[in-house]
Amino acid sequence: MEQYRMEPGSAYPIGTTVNDAGVNFAIFSAHAEKIELCIFDEHGQQELERFVLPQCEHNIWHGFLKGAKAGLVYGYRVYGPYSPEFGHRFNHHKLLLDPYAKALKGAFQWSDRHFAYDVNDPRQDLSFDARDNADVMLKAVVVDTSAPLVPRNPIAWQNTVIYEGHVKGLTALNPKVPEALRGSFLGLSHPAMIAHYRAMGITTIELLPVQQFISEQFLAEKKLSNYWGYNSLAFFVPHKDYINQQQINDFQRMVDELHQAGFEVLIDVVYNHTCEGNWLGPTLSFKGIDNSSYYRLNPKEPRYYINDTGCGNTLNISHPRVLQMVLDSLRYWVQVMGVDGFRFDLATILGREVHGFDKSNGFLDALLQDPILNSVKVIAEPWDIGPGGYQLGGFPSPWSEWNDRYRDTIRRYWRGDKGMLPEFARRIHGSSDIFEHSGRQPFASINFLCSHDGNTLHDLVSYQDRHNEANGENNRDGHSDNFSHNHGVEGDTNDKEIIALRLRQIKNMLATLMLSQGVPMLLAGDEIGRSQKGNNNAYCQDNEINWLNWNEKALYADELKPFVASLSQLRKRFKMLAHDRFIHHNDKKSTVNITWYHPSGYAMKKDHWHSQHAATLGYLLEKNESTSPVLLCLFHAGKEPIAFQLPEIDNIAHWQVMVDTTASTEQDEIRLIPAERIITMAPFSTIVLLNDGLQNN
Fold it and tell me: Bridge partners of 82?
């Protein structure tokens, strides 16, 4: 056995630091009375030695273990009062994970021994459990991390097209990816996947949580799992289930290969809560290290947690050491793991102070000032379930935000809801009504139709109701109103007319997304017609419900993939579709002009906008300094055909049809339409016309 000696160490940096002589251990706890470092064998199965951390400075307990090396397996036992009624839940019988752990050993197993109290005692958490949990608990591994392999090459926001996907779901069923790599980080960057990303024209891959998470106990008991990953345990650790070879190197290699291929990598991060749940949850890390510091507790009854997340607890990011941990974690993922930015789950939590959300709060200010983090992309999910939790448009620059008003408006318009034209135009315009007043640009709006949370595009046009029976909650979970439409049949059908209409509606929504100002985000699989069989809350389904079906003969797959590719090419070709400032009619400061057209061929008037039955709109973009190019986008969400008089524009003799959602994607011939023509738009259709000057020769 190795010979170790504990000596005085350093309080900084927090976590583990390796040098030639040994390893420094540092951990924050403001209320602990003693902390023991527990050393395990290389498999993490047998505890070998315990060492008391000899010093505490600024509430950071630390010690230098002479003779220790990278690869050492360890955990902590923290001594202090067990008094939940006062917010303290110390129990040294529970092995705890280091909040700064970089790699893990072993497998987590649910057991009653993970709870600091006796789960069978009628006093619940006011009782005490003295059983050890080390044999079923994950352990930390000391690592000596290296720098990223390839420097980041940021893509401008206005050129960004995001693709939101799940590490496992993207490749689990892909026959072009070697079986050994499917469902892993390395599978995600396989050449077959890179070819797919390129074909679609995306620039940025946004991954659902990749920080180490565990499944909730109630899911494990039902033989289900937390597939999405919004149940964090370790904020510095790549999730073990996605590893093929080495925990850190696999992730770095994935990022490296995607960077070399020209793509950005964003990760979805969950700093609003942890997997330790409410007052009856397990004690795995933070709760047993310093519960009253790491979590926001009810000031009148500190036994209980503030639950603005809906997940049982809320991380106390207002505490300086907790804030430091979050910022250290973010910097680690940028500097060591190489990511290009973050999407923050329930981001309103991160902007909360005692009085509520404050866009000048400590975290938001710290992020803006940080020399590393102020240069990466940051995206907010701008809501939580606490008071005043809905904050769309409330985040400061340079944040971008998931725009659920965009999602709902586009869905409702194409469903055929009445009176949607004004709202529809605002969302296409980049949601200037939400973002422009605070001096932000169109790319503050992350426009999306579908995300991991909710229906896929296929299901949005195929199911009227949710079908979440597989989740084991009697179909009570998930949103009850998705602004969806089944077009006459619930679920799959052989009716060719319904199938054709559903395909056209998917194309309409995709076209709208790529023609809108702001940043488009695609849900992985929507480009190949992926279905979740009507499940709009598939968070616990680690199976074919969530995994992408790569069958190229599947319904819609052969049509949608080239259609998405053509839209991406159109957006890339014409920069006016992704302008870096809001465009207004006859704005002399802008290089681009916008005009909204009525089917009569004249510019929209006030009464046109407010007609409850109006369902048709023209959207024209043109350069102010020249007559070319000119793009005219026509949208019609009515149930009957409509005649649209093309507007009279000087020096335009013909239009070229660039997009027609009623036509097959396979059509390659150039279609020209005389400028004076009246065209008939089919029910629920989109047409995009171009004049770049060539059509007039």
Answer: 89
By the 8 A CB rule, do 460 and 482 touch? yes
CA distance readout (Å), 97 to 27, 106, 254, 291: 11, 12, 26, 14
Angstrom distance (rounded) from CA 489 to CA 204? 36
Can you read off the two tokens belonging to residue 115? 């709870």
Nearest to 670 by CA among 657, 660, 682: 657
**Is the distance from CB of 6 to CB of 38 less than 8 angstroms?**
no
Query: Which residues in 105-134 are b (16+ Cβ under 10 Å) and which e?
Result: bbebebeebbbbbbeeeeeebebebeeebb
Determine whether 345 is an active site residue.
yes
Q: Of 236, 232, 293, whose CA–CA distance to 61 is shortest?
A: 293
Angle at 264 between CA 263 and CA 269, to 5 degrees: 145
Per-residue pLDDT band at 624 (split at 50, 70, 90): confident
Which pair of structure tokens corresponds to residue 594?
Answer: 């916008």
Please indicate whether residue 381 is annotated as part of the active site. Answer: yes
Q: How far apart are CA 416 and CA 448, in angstroms?
A: 19
Exactly one of 216, 268, 381, 401 is catalytic; name it. 381
473 has pLDDT over 70? yes
**Cα–Cα distance, 502 to 498 (Å, whole number):** 6
Candidates 645, 638, 646, 662; CA nearest to 695 is: 646
476 neighbors 406 (Cβ within 8 angstroms): no
Number of CB atoms found within 10 A of residue 2's CB: 11
DSSP state of 143: -
Structural domains in the chain plus CATH codes: 5-141 (2.60.40.10), 160-274+317-576 (3.20.20.80), 581-696 (2.60.40.1180)
Q: Which of 264, 345, 436, 559 is catalytic?
A: 345
Contacts of 458 (CB under 8 A, 6+ apart): 502, 506, 526, 529, 530, 531, 556
Residue 26, classed as helix, strand or coil, is: strand
Q: Give the SS3 label for residue 505.
A: helix
Tokens of 78: 């923290």
Chain centroid offset of residue 124 CA: 36
| pTM to 2 decimal places | 0.96
- pLDDT tens-digit profile of 651-692? 889 999 999 999 986 666 789 999 889 999 999 999 999 998
